[in-house]
Amino acid sequence: MKITIVTISYNQAQFLEQCIESVLKQSYDNFEYIVVDPGSIDSSREIIERYRSKIDHIIYEPDRGPADGLNKGFNLASGEIYGYINSDDYYLPNAFSKIVQFFQEHTEVDVVSGNAQVINTKNEILRYIYSDKYSLLGCAYGYSVLIQPSSFFRSIAFHETTGFNIENHINWDGELFIDMKLKQAKFKRINESLSAFRIHENSITGSGKLEDDRKISADRLFQKIVGRNRSFADKYLSVCFRFYRYLTNPMDLYQRIRFGPIYGKYANKMS
After folding, report:
1. Share of the chain above pLDDT 70, in %
2. Is residue 27 a contact partner of residue 99, using CB atoms and an 8 Å limit?
3. In the predicted model, what is the mean pLDDT of residues 32-58?
4. Nearest Cα to 88, choosing from 168, 3, 174, 8?
5. Which tens digits make up the pLDDT trace of 69-96?
6. Of 2, 9, 59, 68, which residue is most buried, by most CB within 10 angstroms?
7. Average pLDDT score over the chain
8. How far apart are CA 193 and CA 126, in angstroms?
9. pTM of the model
10. How far apart are alpha carbons 267 and 209 in whole angstroms?
11. Which domains, from first to last, does the chain contain?
12. Which residues touch 105 (CB under 8 Å, ≥6 apart)?
């Protein structure tokens, strides 16, 4: 079973090599690696070139953002299983072999999501995060979240959709999962930590920037799922469902209580 991994790279030279190495050093070797860099002006492309012989496809061309870059990458993919990792994150050892084994044992499953370490710029583990049980209602009300770098999906499920929405610059992976679910894809969690998810001052998660855009995107996706605009009552329902999330994901709740949210409190610990 072949895996295709796409890395989107843009001015993250500080972390890029660790990301690339985490793919190339996996114990499972039946994989294809694609790197997309639309125009980094730091040393990212120099790093990519050092690994050219080990990367199956390198795309150096302008794009309209991360979602567009990912679509270009997956247009070249030939694997049965897809995953993608941002250039400031990395995979943990044996992630691919665990995923392949799970897909082989659960042939009815289309999307698998695991857990992740939350790390800072020094690779220090700040806490762990856990994917939620997935549902469209959960996405609409904000209580169903999958950990992106720890999520993998069958190529057939991806191609049932139109790919990543290139107009979505906030939550392109979340919208892809919604589109897959709308096409009846089956989701499952795996209780394994598969990746390290980095927060830092320049990342969307770490900075806490674009919150207004995030809310606008959430309202649009609510309408896409439910078929109507969010009402005043829905805001209260979101709070109620958030408590439901805590009940169905106790390990994540424990991490949140002990260490706090994955950004905000870490703002002074990222450098």
Report:
1. 93
2. no
3. 98
4. 8
5. 999 999 999 999 999 999 999 999 999 9
6. 9
7. 92
8. 14
9. 0.91
10. 12
11. 3-259 (3.90.550.10)
12. none
